Amino acid sequence: MASGGSLEWRVNVGDGATEVLRPEGSFVGRMVMGVKGFVWGLFVKGWMFLEKAWGIANSEPKKAVHGLKVGLALSIVSVFYYMRPLYEGIGGNAMWAIMTVVVTFESTVGATFYKCVNRVIGTSLAGGLGIGVHWVAAESGDRFEPIILGISLFLLASATTFSRFIPSIKTKFDYGAMIFILTFCLVSISSYRVDKLFELAHTRLTTIAIGTSLCIIVSMLFCPMWAGSQLHSLVFRNLDKLADGLDGCVSEYFKNVDDPEMENENQECHDSKAQSYKCVLNSKASEESMANFARWEPAHGRFGFRHPWKKYLEVGVAMRKCAYCIEALHDCLNSEIKAPNSLKLLLVEPCKALSTSSSKVLKELSIVIKTMKKSTKIDLEVSDMNIAVQELQAAIASFPSTQTANEEHEAATIPPLMELLPLATLVSLLIETASRIEHVVNAVETLANVANFDSEEEKKRSSLDNNDHHVAMRVFPEA
Amino acid sequence: MASGGSLEWRVNVGDGATEVLRPEGSFVGRMVMGVKGFVWGLFVKGWMFLEKAWGIANSEPKKAVHGLKVGLALSIVSVFYYMRPLYEGIGGNAMWAIMTVVVTFESTVGATFYKCVNRVIGTSLAGGLGIGVHWVAAESGDRFEPIILGISLFLLASATTFSRFIPSIKTKFDYGAMIFILTFCLVSISSYRVDKLFELAHTRLTTIAIGTSLCIIVSMLFCPMWAGSQLHSLVFRNLDKLADGLDGCVSEYFKNVDDPEMENENQECHDSKAQSYKCVLNSKASEESMANFARWEPAHGRFGFRHPWKKYLEVGVAMRKCAYCIEALHDCLNSEIKAPNSLKLLLVEPCKALSTSSSKVLKELSIVIKTMKKSTKIDLEVSDMNIAVQELQAAIASFPSTQTANEEHEAATIPPLMELLPLATLVSLLIETASRIEHVVNAVETLANVANFDSEEEKKRSSLDNNDHHVAMRVFPEA
């Protein structure tokens, strides 16, 4: 392969310019060029795909780790069956173990648990029922057997498929219902005798048990990814993003008021930070699925077995209501009607004070959730925010006279109320945002109470009592 | 079974009251009572579950139909294999056909297509690759065989699992990637000889082909549910809901201004209609998955093969921006600061005119999408809306003097600007909503152009030409 002739030939084909010079006919040349272009195009596409994949793996190494974990689990189960003589090709028992691993291994522990439990329950129930129906059909003679089997299959498959649309089934047993139908079909129409069916059911359950245990062990032991932890960090990160969005929005609006010569550097970076709240608007679906999976997870880290994941959803709902308000705020400020700087100047202080105190509250809430400790500062900051609201209202109340004074030495070309519109909107929406932040505060407080977040007082009490005891409490929270 | 004795015995057990009267000791009695309570509880729960299911089946009969369709497909495939002698119990070839039906039969045609195509592609690719790897491993001797198999399995499973996180793979080939891993594992570690593997691959592909064709035929022939049609109606229904939400919000705000003695009947009904826009806020996920599935669907009804489903998503984005604004509008109007009726009276006319013309535009857009005909009225209605915006701005512009006049004969206890806040917010948000509705109009117009909606002029032209031709065009749109 590394001989001179072969190398020479390759260079000739690889290098289009040389090829064209050869007098072998333009058809071959064009063919080669075409193939070359096609291969090159494929290569470039493949390369771009790999670069994208590499980017994802770099930014979220957990996803690459999940891939490796699946590879590991499959290798283990394959080696296990490869070594054993009972394995006899596709269709043997190994298949069920491998299939279980491929189908139930999800990226979070909760989702893996959900699928494993559903698979075991669905298979057991359907296996039992299927054997029963099979027995009844076999007893009722050759003539009725296919009729009984067909009707029971049709009815159960229809009813179970329909039940997957019912919300309570859908959230908890969607996958189990599918496995139920599958197993029931396989068992009820199989032509085995009933005693052989029992043996079969036994081996199938054993292999599924092996597959599910392996999935659960691998997903929990090697870099476990908990749906609960993901939900937890999603919520506190979203709170931070809301705070940034609110701050960014207000400072963007007033940016040239204080100092019109202010430099615009770091503007883009600041913009992207201010825009990040937008992902809060669409986080409902991912929050709900994470909370759904988190319920299946055992106690881990700082989260107990019955950690109130539903309460995170309530915080999420309150946050989204805030985000809608900030979204409206953001776009109203970009509206066509611009308030003159002279008017803006009058409100810049109270508006900025309110947005700063509001975002402080949000950031404090984010810290409360992040550290899972009740805050002593939060009440103070909420009352700061309320004072800022009152000051803004007071500023508005004293506004007309000031504005009239302004009007006297300015020629009013546009009617004053038109100019006031965006400012009035800003003020209303800021006040509305503050009132919605109070709902977020309430939701977080409920969460903190139900989830028994540490409070400073309790901490002091427990540190007087015994320091080690307190640490133990946090590592193994009461289930 | 229907003999009198047997019937008698059953009644005795079934009827708890008879049982309790017998003097057999209180323990048994309590047991019976306990069992009775448990059974009764189960019965009540089951009954409630059935009632709920019945409610769902009644309100959305398509879901029940889907259940029946799955039952039908499974019955057909089961009967097919039950009749044939080649079927030999679980693990035989029938299993793959049944499994294919259970796993790939989704409620919409598009989702079924997506899963079927993915299943066939994934199985074929992995089968080919698996046979190749199996051959290489078998050729390289007993010593290297398990090593080559293990390493290739680990690497491919890891890489494919990771690739499922890459967006382009995730939206189009998520299921195919899973099937790829599954088939590759099964084939590569099977202990069959290569020539037998070919035979096996052939039968497996055949059974999968039977299963997928059956799924596609049943899902398309019996009451087909098209993801595309669902997306289509979701979008035009959401437009209607937005219009209702906007109208309801504004008329709710001004409800006691014109006629404070107005009756409050039908209030709740009206409220629920006005609140219905809220589901627009969270429709992103379902719109995206429907658009994703709709791309797999063949031409059906009024939709061609390359119907621009992506454009519906753009309409959806524009609609959601509108909905955020209406959400802010809705809650700001319920804020603590109330504008006095005297001030409201001054703006009731232009505000109502704007909200009416805005919701007219939205309703017209809904009709455009519903009937798939370009509207001749839409330009007129958009300019009506813009005139209403200008009139509202003019009303605001003339407001200060009017308000001052009012102030003269009213004792102003609250500073006037505070009272103005909610009204100013209403006005800004209404104007902002109108400008966002224009974005919706643009998105719908792009959709209408790309999807070749009929326009009135074309209709006239074609009706002059040939009426039948026009009908034919609508039934079989150009693909």
TrEMBL record, chains A, B:
InterPro entries: ALMT
Topology in the lipid bilayer: Multi-pass membrane protein
Keywords, in A-Z order: Ion channel, Ion transport, Membrane, Transmembrane, Transmembrane helix, Transport
Transmembrane segments: 27-44, 64-82, 94-113, 120-138, 144-163, 175-194, 206-227
Compartment(s) where it occurs, according to its Swiss-Prot or TrEMBL record: Membrane
GO terms, biological process: malate transport; monoatomic ion transmembrane transport
Coiled coil, from the record: none
Metal-binding as UniProt keyword: no
The protein's name in its UniProt record: Aluminum-activated malate transporter 10
Gene this protein is translated from: LOC111461009
